[in-house]
Design goal:
246 residues; alpha/beta; 7 helices
Length: 246
């Protein structure tokens, strides 16, 4: 488990070798349906990957954190979904829908995540992959089947339920991965450069598909990327990890 340290201690050292994300306390709100980060920082072996990140992402908004590989973007998402390894220390607070999540078990945080790879299970059909995302409270077989069929229709993949994921195109796999995430009824969505392995034309279409669906469901969404076109398409607040604040 990561070790929580005080925000004051994290921000007290202004040494120039400690990178800082832009600190924007004026943007933090008390919205009960938002993803809220207050003074968040991640440290590894006495080296700060970043510090002082304050951000409020409202329902249906897509905020973007820009930066090169290795600057801590993915570590931030791992912190939010509860998979950050124990060598890291963290500062700050994170809440979703008004609830502090950093001391909450990962399975209770209800964070939906999309990665560079779609991570569809190769031993399952498309429909079985989608069924895997459904919460346990949806237990009736007919109800589960109906939810999967609705997701396939929404993804313009009606009739693809029995297909092997390996037979799908890259864009089709990306749509299935998103629908599986949405079927899990997340409170927020985290996007870890999910468009980076797609060709230019397909990337634009998949971006539109992803952003339109998270907005339609009023889900606060945080995107990390090194591609300015991703940030432009997201249309929300953009924070550049390379910027510093003292």
């Amino acid at each position: 488990m990561t070790r929580q340290i005080s925000v004051a201690g994290a921000l007290a050292d202004d040494s120039p070798n400690l990178p800082a994300m832009r600190h924007t306390p004026n943007r933090l709100s008390s919205r009960q349906d938002a993803l809220e980060l207050q003074g968040v920082g991640i440290c590894l072996a006495d080296r700060w990957l970043f510090r002082g990140l304050t951000l409020s992402v409202g329902p249906g908004d897509v905020a973007t954190i820009m930066g090169p590989s290795g600057c801590g973007k993915s570590s931030l998402l791992n912190l939010l979904c509860g998979s950050l390894d124990s060598p890291f220390d963290v500062a700050g607070q994170v809440s979703v829908a008004g609830q502090n999540i950093l001391q909450t078990a990962p399975e209770q945080r209800r964070m939906g995540v999309l990665y560079q790879d779609d991570l569809l299970f190769p031993h399952m059909t498309v429909a079985q992959n989608l069924l895997f995302g459904l919460p346990a409270r949806i237990s009736r077989r007919a109800e589960r089947r109906a939810a999967v069929e609705a997701a396939l229709t929404d993804a313009e993949l009606s009739g693809f339920g029995d297909r092997d994921p390996a037979t799908l195109s890259g864009g089709q796999r990306a749509r299935v991965a998103l629908m599986r995430t949405l079927l899990s009824e997340p409170s927020a969505v985290l996007l870890d450069e999910p468009f980076s392995k797609l060709d230019t034309e397909l990337r634009q279409r998949v971006r539109e598909f992803v952003f339109s669906h998270v907005r339609r469901r009023n889900l606060p969404t945080l995107l990390v990327t090194h591609d300015p076109d991703d940030a432009s398409a997201a249309g929300g607040e953009v924070i550049n990890q390379a910027e510093t604040s003292h």
